[in-house]
Amino acid sequence: MTDRSLPLLPVKARSSVLATCFLRGAIAAGLGLGALAVLVMVLWISSPYPDSGPGGALRTAASLWLLAHGTQLVRPETLTGTPAPVGVVPLLLMALPAWLAHRAARDALMPGEDEVYEGECAESLPSGWTVFWAVTCGYLMIGGATVLYASAGPLPADPRSAGLHLPLTAALATAFGVWTAHGRPLGPLPDRVPAWLRSALVDSRTAVAARAAGAAVAVLLGGGALLAGACLAWHIGVAEDSFLRLAENWPGRFALLLLALALVPNAAVWGAAYGLGPGFALGTGAVATPLGVAGTPALPHFPLLAAVPTGTHGSWWNWAAAGVPLVAGVVLARFCARAAVFEGWGRRDAARAALLGAVLCGCALAGLAALAGGPLGTAALAKLGPVWWRTGGAALLWAMAVGVPAALVLRAWGARERVARQRRSLRARMAGALGWRPWRKAAVAVAAPGAVAAPRGESVAAESEADHEPYEFLPVSGGGLWHEDGAREARWAALKEASGGLMAEIPAEDGLGEALRAALSQPGPFPPGGHAAPPRADSDPEPAPRTPQEPGIAAQPHDAAGPVPEPVRPSSDPDSHSDSDYDPDSHSDADSGYDPDSFSGSDSDSDGYSDPGPDGYSDSDSDSDFGSYSALGPDPASAPEPGAAGDPGPAPDSSPHTT
Fold first, then answer.
1. Distance between CA atoms of residues 300 and 454, nearest Å
2. Which of 213, 276, 377, 534 is 20 to 30 Å from the Cα of 194, by its Cα?
3. What CA–CA distance (Å, rounded) separates 556 from 149?
C-alpha cells in the first residue's frame, strides 16, 4: 500500500482530483491506524491473561495512534481514583503517521508511472494549496472518528490536546510533502512576508547556518544516546530487575521491549539535556544534572529509567558529559568556517553564520525537549523529562560560546592555508617558467647550422627527458586551424609533391584550384625522383653531424675532395609547369629518366644482382634509372677524369644499393 498508492480516477473533471487527494489523506491515516491495530491484536492474542476483549484491544490501538500525534491520553482508573494524564510521547512512534501523511501529499503532486491524470486533469494539475487542504481534511476525518472511538476505551484522549496536536501534526507532515513535491525551494515567498525575511531565507549564509545547526543537533543527540547507553550499562542490574518485574511472560516482555525501543530517541534527548547542563526533571521536586541529583526523585519502575544517575554530588564521570556540547560547538564552527573560506567571507559574515546556526540549534533542542517529556501522572509525576526553555537556552549559549570564536579561528587558519597553497603553486609555476633546462639548450645546439653533435649518451638522455615535455599538437597562431579545408588541401599537396607524382591529383573546389596549382608549381625541397638532394658544399664549409642512412643506401663520404656538383632542380618558373606534369598516368621525369610505369623488379644491374625492395621495386635497377642522383652523390658525368687534378683517387663503391 505504501509502494503503490491510490490510482487516480480517469474521470475528466477537476472534482475527481480533489476527491482523490482527499481519499489519499484518509488512506494514509487508515494505514497508520491499521498497522498499530495489527500489532496490538497480535500481542492481545498471544497474551495468556488478556484484560479485555477484542474491542478493548482495538480501542487501545486507537489511543496509541493518537498518542503518536502528540495527543495526551487520560488514565481514568488509578489507585486514588483521580484520572492521571499520560503525556510522554515515544518519538520513534511519531515517525509512522508523519511519514504516511508526507507520502500522501507528495504522491498527489508526483504521480508514478502507472498513476497518470487523464483528460482535462492532465492539463491542469491541482495546486499545492489544494493538495494540502484536501489531504489534511481527509486525514483529519479519520482522526476525528478515531478520537470518538477511543473515548470509550481504557485510555481515552484528552479532547483539548487532540484538537491541538492532531491537526498540527497532520498539517506539518502534509506541508512538508507538498514542499518536497515542488523540489523543496526556498523562494519566492508571498508578498505578505516581509522583505527582510525573504532575503534572509534565500541568503547563502542561512543555508550554511541551517546545515551547521543540523550537524550540531546530530552530535548532541548522538552524544546523549552515548551517555544514556553508558549509564544503562553501568546500572544493568537495576534495569534487568525492572524488566522482569513488569513482565512475567514472553508476550508482555516483547511488548515492553517494543515500548523501550520506541522511547530510545527520548532517552537521547534526555542525555543531550544532561550534557548541556540543565538536566531533566525526575518529578515535581527533583532534577538530575552533572553536578548531582537535587531533591527526591519519583520514578516508576521502567528499564530505561534505571540509567538515571544517582547521588547528591556528581563525580568527574558526570562532569565529562560537558564534552558533548563542546564537540557540537566545534562541529558547528567547522561547517561555518569551511563555507566562509570557500565563499571568501570576512570575519563578520562567518560570525553571523555561526550565530544564526547557534540560534537554530537552540530552537531545535527546545522543540525536541518539549516533545520528549511530559506528565505521567499527578502530583509528583506531573513533570518528567527536560524543560524545553532551559534546554534550548543552554544549547544556544553553548553554541554561541564555542561555535562563534571557533568559527573565526578556523576561518583564519583555513584562509592562511589556502593562501599558502596558492603561493606554493605560484612559486612552482615561476620556477618551471624561469628554470634552466639543459636538454632544450642541447636540442637547439644540435639543430643550429655548424653545431657540433653531442655525444651519443648525452643525446639519448636529452631525448628521454624531452619526451616528458608537453607537446602541443594544435597550432596557437598562424594559418588557421589544422582541420580547415585550406589546411587539408595544402597538406595533401605537400604529400603529392614529396611522392614524386605517384599520388592522384586532389580535386579543387570553391576556387582553390589556382592556389593549389601555384603551390604545386613552386620548387620543393625534394627532387621529383623522391630522394633527398645532397647538401651543398658551398653553403656549409664544415661537415654536418652524421645522421643514420636508410638501409641499403651507401653513405656519401664527407672527406671527399673537390666540390660537390649542384643537383638538378626543377625550374622555378610557374608557367613552365601544368597539371599534366603531375598526372600519375602521364608523368615522366625527363631529367632523371625515372619512369614509374616501366620500372619493375626484372631490371638488373651490370653485376646481375637483383633484390626486390619493400615497394616491389628491384634493388638491381640500373644507374640510368636514377639519373644524376646515384646514391645521393655527385653526377658521374660531371666527375673529374681519373688522375686529373682534384681527383682523390679511386672512390668507394657508389652503387646505390649495397648489401
1. 96
2. 213
3. 115
CA 155 to CA 146: how far, in whole Å? 12
Beta strands in 15-151 (DSSP E): 73-75, 84-86
DSSP 342-389: HHT--HHHHHHHHHHHHHHHHHHHHHHHHHH---SSSGGGG-EE--HH
Contact 143, 29 (CB under 8 A): yes
Residue 219's nearest CA partner among 104, 101, 364, 353 is 364
Q: How far apart are CA 377 and CA 382, in angstroms?
A: 5
| Cell numbers linked to 39 | 500489532
Task: List 74's β-bridge partners, or say none.
Answer: 85
What residue type is assigned to position 454 of the chain? A
Residues 216/354, Cβ–Cβ less than 8 Å: no
Using one digit for the tens of pLDDT, what is the confidence trace for 353-363? 999 999 999 99
How far apart, in whole angstroms, are the C-alpha atoms of residue 469 and residue 165? Answer: 72
What percentage of the chain exceeds 70 in pLDDT? 61
Contact 584, 503 (CB under 8 A): yes
Look at residue 135 and give its three-state secondary structure.
helix
Q: What's the DSSP call for residue 186?
A: -
The closest of 531, 650, 544, 641 to 591, measured between CA atoms, is 531
Q: Count the Cβ atoms, other than its own, within 10 Å of residue 588.
A: 15
Q: What's residue 504's pLDDT?
A: 61
Angle CA 124–125–130, to nearest 5:
120
Q: Are 612 and 601 in contact (CB under 8 A)?
A: yes
What is the chain's mean pLDDT, rounded?
74
Q: Per the structure block, which three cell numbers stand in for 423?
A: 603561493
Distance CA 505, CA 513 (A): 11
CB neighbours of residue 403 within 10 Å: 31
Tell me how long the chain is: 659
CB 520 within 8 A of CB 496: yes
The DSSP symbol for 151 reads: T
User: Roughly how many angstroms between the first and final C-alpha of the chain, as a whole number?
Assistant: 89
- Segment (H or E) for 61: helix 54-67
Instruction: Specify the range with the lowest mean pLDDT, choosing from 62-71, 82-91, 403-412, 632-641.
Output: 632-641
What does pTM read for this prediction? 0.63
Question: Residue for cell digits 484538537?
Answer: 163
Spatial CB neighbours of 562, under 8 Å, sequence gap ≥ 6: 640, 646, 647, 648
How many C-beta atoms lie closer than 10 Å to residue 429's C-beta?
Answer: 10
User: Of all helices (H) and strands (E), which one includes residue 293?
Assistant: strand 292-294
Q: What is the dihedral of CA 283, 287, 292, 298, to 10 degrees?
A: 0
Q: Of the candidates 328, 327, 353, 329, which has an alpha carbon nearest to the alpha carbon of residue 339?
A: 353
* Cell representation of residue 635: 653526377
Burial of 348 (0-12, 13-18, 19+ CB in 10 A): exposed
Identify whether the C-beta of residue 406 lies closer than 8 Å to the C-beta of residue 329. yes
